[in-house]
Design brief:
The complex is a heterodimer of chains A (171) and B (100). Chain A has 171 residues and is mostly helical. Chain A is built from 7 helices and no strands. Chain A folds into 2 domains: 85 residues, NADH-ubiquinone/plastoquinone oxidoreductase chain 6, subunit NuoJ (Four Helix Bundle (Hemerythrin (Met), subunit A), Up-down Bundle), CATH 1.20.120; 42 residues. Chain A is 78% helix and 0% strand. The N and C termini of chain A lie far apart (71 Å). The model of chain A has no long low-confidence stretch (mean pLDDT 83). Chain B has one domain: Orthogonal Bundle (Helix Hairpins). In chain B, 78% of the residues lie in helices and 0% in strands. Chain B is elongated and about 50 Å long. The chains are: A mainly alpha (171), B mainly alpha (100). At the A-B interface, helix 1, helix 2, helix 3, helix 5 and helix 6 of A face helix 1, helix 2 and helix 3 of B.
């Protein structure tokens, strides 16, 4: 039992370190295509963390939809627009240090609040991962069936909006 | 078992990095990517709490968040293409049509 605990902790810290390094690299990279590749690293690391949490279906969806579809869309647009190296004016460089301070304060405050209010919550005894995928499909098509149907309208509206926005204007 | 708090702390760190990237980066595509990073951080908190309480509601919410993020990416990238076509730039400081 103790060995298993150590092993999952090692995996957690490896994946968490990968995610944080990828997120910092998203800020430090100057070219948007490098930022996009860093974001893909973050998403794959998060998919590994979902597997560690016993959420296999969410991990698969994360890889397929985020790492696949959305990031391919981003890379496609970056290459379509031929985006170059980012230019920083002196004023926007000046905003760095105070912004960093405020963000550290924000993350610290959020962490402190959540950790304080969830001090009593301990990881449940992982009841065989509760047959995760079939449980999700049961909830999605019984309890959440109206929101699920509404998302199809949302996607329809998004597709129409993207088509109207990106089409060339008629002469 | 990794304590739930570790996941929450990682989620807060990733969210903070996303906020910083959102205010610091000047390229409109990178700003859009930092929004996706923040959504991912929230998803991690959802799944961690879902496992902590042994209920699947959190994972269902994550699926809805991913659907909304996909729709948002489609519309947002359409807007970015429109801005790039009209202003010939991706720098947000040069998109100042409504500035006095």
């Amino acid at each position: 039992m103790g060995w298993e605990m150590t092993a999952s902790l090692v995996v957690f810290f490896a994946l968490a370190g990968l995610a944080v390094i990828g997120a910092v690299s998203l800020i430090l990279q100057k070219h948007p295509i490098h930022s996009a590749l860093s974001l893909i690293v973050v998403m794959v690391a998060l998919a590994g963390l979902y597997l560690l949490l016993g959420a296999e279906f969410v991990a698969a969806v994360q890889i397929i939809v985020y790492g696949g579809a959305i990031m391919v869309l981003f890379v496609f647009v970056i290459m379509l627009l031929n985006a170059g190296v980012e230019e920083q004016t002196s004023i926007s460089k000046l905003a760095g240090p105070p912004g960093l301070l405020l963000v550290v304060a924000l993350a610290g405050f959020v962490t402190a609040t959540i950790v304080r209010t969830t001090a009593g919550v301990q990881g449940s005894s992982q009841t065989g991962a509760m047959a995760s995928t079939s449980g999700i499909s049961n909830m999605l098509f019984r309890d959440f069936v109206y929101p699920f149907e509404l998302t199809s309208f949302l996607i329809l509206v998004a597709v129409m909006g993207a088509t109207v926005l990106a089409q060339r204007e008629k002469p | 078992m990794v304590p739930t708090n570790y996941y929450i702390i990682l989620s807060a760190i990733l969210f903070g990095i996303g906020v910083f990237a959102f205010v610091f980066k000047r390229n409109i595509i990178t700003i859009f990517m930092s929004i996706e990073l923040m959504l991912n951080a929230v998803n991690l908190a959802f799944v961690a709490f879902s496992q902590a309480w042994g209920k699947l509601d959190g994972q269902v919410f994550v699926l809805f968040v991913i659907v909304v993020a996909a729709a948002e990416a489609a519309v947002g990238l359409g807007i970015i293409i429109l801005i790039a076509r009209n202003r010939q730039t991706l720098n947000v400081e040069r998109v100042d049509l409504m500035k006095l």
